[in-house]
Amino acid sequence: MPSNSWRRWSKPATIGNSQEFPLAEDFLGRRLTMKKDSTSYGAERPAWDKNDCSIRALATATGCGYAQASMIFTAAGRTLRQGTTTALSQEVYEKWLGMIPLMHVEGMSLGEFARLAHTGNFIVHKFMHAFAVIDGVVHDWEGTSRDATKVVRAWRVTPATRAKLAKFGAFVA
Length: 173
Fold this sequence. Notes:
By secondary structure, the protein is of the alpha+beta class. The protein has one domain (5-172). Helices cover 31% and strands 23% of the residues. It is built from 5 helices and 8 strands; from the N terminus they run βββαααβαββββα. The chain has helices at residues 53-62, 66-76, 86-96, 110-116, 159-172; strands at residues 13-15, 18-25, 31-37, 100-101, 121-126, 129-134, 137-139, 153-156. It has an 8-stranded mixed sheet. It is globular, with a radius of gyration of 17 Å.
């Protein structure tokens, strides 16, 4: 391949709110892509709440509503209009909801993580931001997540997580 062949892929292909970003080529020379979708982050939220990426990530990855995810984080100690610390997110994800923390992902590129996480729902933290990865597709409303983005932490959504959210939803309904 010529050295400037990367230029063919320098602009992402866009279909609706989905985008494909070039990653690399596999051993057969086929182009690998990281898919992104911002559609699911269109959840309505109160205008007075900002810095809510952890709430949006939880709602997107688990399928629960924004209000339910917000209540969970507020009950855990999140202050409105302030970001959620990784420690607080870890407590909610692991202790409250039973998500499985993924070991050995710290420092991994998001492109590599998306290829490995091709099935299942995940919540991913990068520096100062959280988003969901569902079946290898990055769901990020902020639009700053790229192939080279470094993963800080990640959790897998389990059936136990969904059951706990269903119980919580029935309790507050």
